[in-house]
Amino acid sequence: MERLRFATVGSVDDGKSTLIGRLLYDSKSIFEDQLEHVEAVSRRRGDDYVDLSLLTDGLRAEREQGITIDVAWRYFATPKRSFIIADCPGHIQYTRNMVTGASNVDLAIVLVDARTGVVEQTRRHSLLVSLLGVPHMVICVNKMDLVGWDQGRFDEIRREFEEFAARLDLHDVTFIPISALAGDNVVERSANMPWWGGTTLLHHLEHVYTASDGNRIDVRFPVQFVIRPQRAEFPDYRGYAGRVAGGVLAVGDEVMVLPSGLTTRITGIDSPTGPRESAGTGDAVTLLLADDLSISRGDMICRPNNRPRASQELEAMLCWMDDAQPLQPGRIYSLKHTTRLVRAKVNEVLYRLDISTLHRDPSATGLAMNEIGRVTLHTTQPLFHDDYHANRVTGCFILVDEASGQTAGAGMLLPPRT
User: Fold this and answer.
1) Burial class of residue 110, CB neighbours in 10 A (0-12, 13-18, 19+)
2) What sign has the CA pseudo-torsion 128, 383, 366, 322?
3) CB-based contacts of 52: which residues, under 8 Å, 6+ apart?
4) 17 versus 37: which is more confidently predicted?
5) What residue segments make up the domains of the chain, in order of their start?
6) How many CA atoms lie within 13 A of 286 on its CB side?
7) Which CATH class is domain 3-207?
8) Confidence of residue 261 (pLDDT cuts 50, 70, 90)
9) Which CATH architecture has domain 309-413?
10) CATH of domain 221-302
11) pLDDT digit string (tens) for 89-116?
12) Phi, psi (rounded to 5 degrees) for 54
């Protein structure tokens, strides 16, 4: 069954967790004991309704404060599609959690409160969705029941967001008026908004076209592990395991291995379900090659005439995540890129980006937690990479503080300036 990964983002109290709870409830994707528990907690809190947001707010602190802190992952399916949901926090201090949750989704749902409209956190999260290269966005104007189901208010918010989004790199934006609490236009069409001629949210999620989102042209296969059973029944078996990061590989294809630059041919493709003739983006497989080459973890398999960029000098948009140590240019970090681990130094902060106004501050010399900036880096070994917007797998990396072992920053690689 085809799968869609999506994230819910937006400001605090815009109804992200309630929306997911409504999707799970109306699509009959929760167990009876889960619903009974949510009903009991709602009664203890004195609510006169069943608070469906409790289905996703799993941490005790989240339930007590009524906010989302960590990214909550939920799963459900309909006859048309299966779904993986990331419920991302709305508070500014948890921006790093939002970046983590939205970094590998196919679609982002941005919740906007119909009463307050497009606020600072709406713009902040929309910018982050744009920077993260999420292919599809749905603007859900929520709480339409609290503005009398007014079409004029919906149109006003739509114009306001479109004016802001014109400065962002967004390609597919859909607007839907909803009430997550009451369920209007979430799974079933709303009788309260007869003026709305579009689809429900679930219908859109089931039918949004994602087949062309992945990069199926540039073959990229980072080697994760070399498999050599060395058993009597497999005396000569040598396979190279990993996940296809781009393109399509097939038995008989000529490929090149980086950094050696040697070429060979694919003689077999093994998978958890058995041998196969081809593998595409996202597939976890083991490649068998015609020649016994020296290949190890971190090497990259690609086409001879379509290679990733290889460089030690990099430019990237960097989101800083370390609350203990701000970014210090000149300091050495561990850099994790695909399956490759090298040491790296941030040479310079070119500018810090105000993610509310899109203003660039070239006077910035560092980055504090949750701040984003354009930086230059130098690595001890070349990275085989693509621009982030060409390939989200080979175009991203994380920086790790070598002293604490904590993730310090997440970066998106950019084309070099000319």
Assistant:
1) buried
2) positive
3) 17, 18, 20, 21, 22, 24, 25, 38, 180, 181
4) 17
5) 3-207, 221-302, 309-413
6) 16
7) alpha beta
8) very high
9) Beta Barrel (2.40)
10) 2.40.30.10
11) 655 655 667 777 777 889 999 999 999 9
12) -65, -15
- CA dist 5 and 20 (Å) reads 13
pLDDT at 143: 95
Q: N- to C-terminal Cα distance for the chain?
A: 44
Q: How are beta strands 332-337 and 309-320 bridged, if at all?
A: unpaired
Q: Same topology for domains 221-302 and 309-413, yes or no?
A: yes
Residue type, 303: R
Residues 6+ positions from 202 with CB-CB distance below 8 Å: 23, 26, 27, 78, 186, 187
Q: Residue 66 has which token pair?
A: 């009524």
DSSP per residue, 45-98: TT-SS--GGGGT--SHHHHHHTS--SPEEEEEE-SS-EEEEEE---SGGGHHHH
Task: Identify the residue whose tokens are 């709602």.
Answer: 42
| Chain segment 6-18, per-residue pLDDT in tens | 988 887 777 777 8
The answer to whether residues 281 and 216 touch, using CB atoms and an 8 Å cutoff, is yes
pLDDT of residue 61: 40
Total number of residues shown for the chain = 418
What residues have CB less than 8 Å from 51, skipping those under 6 apart? 18, 21, 38, 41, 42, 45
Residue 393 near residue 400, CB atoms below 8 Å:
no
For residue 341, give both structure tokens. Answer: 């681990």
pLDDT value at residue 65: 42
